[in-house]
């Protein structure tokens, strides 16, 4: 009686129920740093970051940070090209405060062509390895990426698959991606510059508006020269969809009041973290 009341109170109070991975309750099987995994005969690399004070009984969020065209896993994991330390995993490492496991996969030659499904198989293999070696909440997988890293996150999300994502953030999403069958409902936060190609981002957003059963209208995008951003939230029967346009070009760390990337001033990490932690 006492036990079931306690369980009721916990579920009632927080409304959450974790789906612990095979690595929960086991000795920590991966250390932070570069890793190698063989995928269909090919050696592939990724960087993992395990929270300080890792608790093998705590199911953590798992967040992929996917690099852009010509980028690298180091760029993502260490915040290179924007602001080292501050921009690690698109600024989310800092905001997570040791509550999430992060992974940065390396594309072959800095690309995500996914030839013969090779990149998606690589992501699946990372999931298998990380979730078997560390304690992950398998209901709480996320991905964030810029440019081709954004569209690759879109492709991984809308296909569903064996390791479905709960939500993604696509910054200036661009680049080829496969989405088959493409009907998976996944939380979608899209962020795109008006001087970039926002219609490209809108077409990806609209897939999730459809998949997630959303209605609503986009707010008027910011005026050129305003150095600001505009947010639109849709009403969805499934997972949420949010769309942000900003006055700027093809960049990953937009901020209000200035042009170009600024890691410490950018609103992107705050929005992405807020979005991911609604789940
Ligand atoms: C980013 O913003 C901070 C604080 O406003 C400022 O000190 C810094 O110079 C800016 N960096 C860039 C690259 O604009």
Looking at this protein, list some descriptive labels.
single chain; binds 2-acetamido-2-deoxy-beta-D-glucopyranose; alpha/beta; two-stranded antiparallel ribbon; 279 residues; disordered N terminus
Structural write-up:
By secondary structure, the chain is α/β, with parallel strands linked by helices. Helices cover 27% and strands 24% of the residues. The protein is built from seven helices and eleven strands. The protein has a nine-stranded mixed beta sheet, with helices on both faces. Strands 8-10 form a two-stranded antiparallel sheet. Helix 5 links the parallel strand 5 and strand 6. The longest helix is centred in the middle third of the chain and has 16 residues. It is globular. 46% of the residues are buried. Bound molecules: 2-acetamido-2-deoxy-beta-D-glucopyranose. 2-acetamido-2-deoxy-beta-D-glucopyranose binds next to loops.
Secondary-structure topology with pairs:
Layout: H1 2-14, E1 33-39, E2 42-49, E3 60-66, H2 73-78, H3 92-96, E4 100-105, H4 118-133, E5 136-146, H5 148-158, E6 167-171, E7 187-193, H6 198-211, E8 214-215, E9 229-233, E10 235-236, E11 241-246, H7 268-276
Parallel strand pairs: 3-4, 3-5, 5-6, 6-7, 7-11
Antiparallel strand pairs: 1-2, 2-4, 8-10, 9-11
Bound molecules: 2-acetamido-2-deoxy-beta-D-glucopyranose.
Provide the list of bound ligands, each named once.
2-acetamido-2-deoxy-beta-D-glucopyranose
| Spans where pLDDT lies below 50 across 5 or more residues | 1-15
* Percentage of residues in DSSP E strands: 15-25%
The percentage helix is: 25-40%
